[in-house]
Protein: NADH-quinone oxidoreductase subunit I
Organism: Phycicoccus avicenniae
Amino acid sequence: MTGPRVPGVLKGLATTARTALRPAHTSEYPDVPPDLPPRSRGVIALLEENCTSCMLCARECPDWCIHIDSHKETVPAPAPGGRERQRNVLDRFAIDFSLCMYCGICIEVCPFDALFWSPQFEYAETDIRDLLHEKERLGGWMASVPAPPALDERAAPPAEETAASRPARGGPRGGAGRTPPARPPRTVRPRVVESEDPS
Ligand code: SF4
Ligand code: SF4
């Protein structure tokens, strides 16, 4: 064995003396709310107007804890002679947080940006059935969703902006106000005329 033999009780006292001088890291929740990172997974918020009832989130949820009901509605033609259209109307959207495992798949797969993480976590219930949040309650969580981070200055411009700056159909080619590049002069090849065989 190497080093001096120190009885365990002296080691313990030394550790106590060392840590007693350090500042405490006690979390004083609920008097002091925790400073959570902006991407904390507290609860899922629903932006109802963005939801098209496509069912993608409900199908991908590994826990089957998303419940969606909807019906079809006929939208009249916008102009005489036009076609009527059908659209889905959301009747029910609910997430059972007693089953949810906070994997975030539903938020990732939603093609219409209708679901968001909110860092709000204070929704514990004494009755497990109250953890089933209907769309009104899910919509209420939107107020606590943090604003998205600013775009990276060096990132490529958004596709929507690029598309909006393109000229309308029939306009000048190469973008508004831009002169198309000059073409290089065309090389004309001499034509070879084959003489007829006199034989
Ligand atoms: S976070 Fe995961 S488990 Fe929870 S509702 Fe979304 S897909 Fe389902
Ligand atoms: S939340 Fe998104 S993925 Fe789910 S039904 Fe609505 S639009 Fe579809």
Notes: The mean pLDDT is 85. Residues 69 and 169 are 41 Å apart (CA to CA). Residues 51-57, 68, 110, 112, 114-115 surround iron/sulfur cluster (ligand 2) (CB under 6 Å).
